[in-house]
Amino acid sequence: MNRLAIIALITLVCVACSGSSDNAHTTATTIVPPPVRQQLHVEFRPAANVAAKIEESKLRLEPAKPLLVFHLPNGQTFRPDEPVAIDFSLANAKLKGDGGDYRVRYIVDNEEMQWIDRSEQVVLSGWTPGKHTIRLELVGPDGWPVQDQVMTRELTVTK
Predict the structure, then answer these.
(1) pLDDT confidence of 49, banded at 50, 70, 90?
(2) What whole-number distance in Å separates Cα of residue 72 and Cα of residue 63?
(3) Distance CA 103, CA 116 (A)
(4) What is the CATH number of domain 41-157?
(5) Contact call for residues 104 and 135 (beta carbons, < 8 A)
(6) pTM passes above 0.85
(7) What is the dihedral of CA 125, 128, 129, 135, to 10 degrees?
(8) Which residues contact 51 (CB under 8 A, 6 or more apart)?
(9) How many CA within 13 A on the CB side of residue 63?
(10) Domain boundaries along the sequence of the chain
C-alpha cells in the first residue's frame, strides 16, 4: 500500500509540473500597440526657379561653390490639415532631372530619406500633432552631402 501511495504522489507531482499554459506563472502579460506612425502625403508642384543668391545665405561662401537655400523659417507652427512646402533655391548647381549632377535629399523626423531631382516644390500634408524636423541636404556628384549645405528646420503641428 505504501508503494502505491508513493507512485500516486510521484505521478501527481509530474502532472502538476508539466502544465503547458504559457501564462501559468504570476507575471502579467500586457500587449501595448506601437504608436501611430505618421503617413505623409507627398505632392510635387512647380517651383519658381529663382536662383539662390549669396546674400540670402547667412553663411559666407565662395561665389563659385554650390549653394542651397531652404525657404522654410525655423520654428514655424502649422495645423494638422495645413500642408508644409519644402521650397528651396540653388546657385552654382543643377539637379539631375534638370541636366546637372546634384540631388537634394530630405529627411522628415529621421525617417527614410527621400530625393528631389528636379527644381520643384515638395508639399507634405498629413502631419500628426507635435514637434517635427525636416533636414534638407545638397548631395554632390560623389554621393556625399556638399560641405555646409545641410539645413535642418524644426516645426510644430498643433491640434
Answers:
(1) low
(2) 23
(3) 6
(4) 2.60.40.10
(5) no
(6) no
(7) -70
(8) 89, 90, 91
(9) 1
(10) 41-157
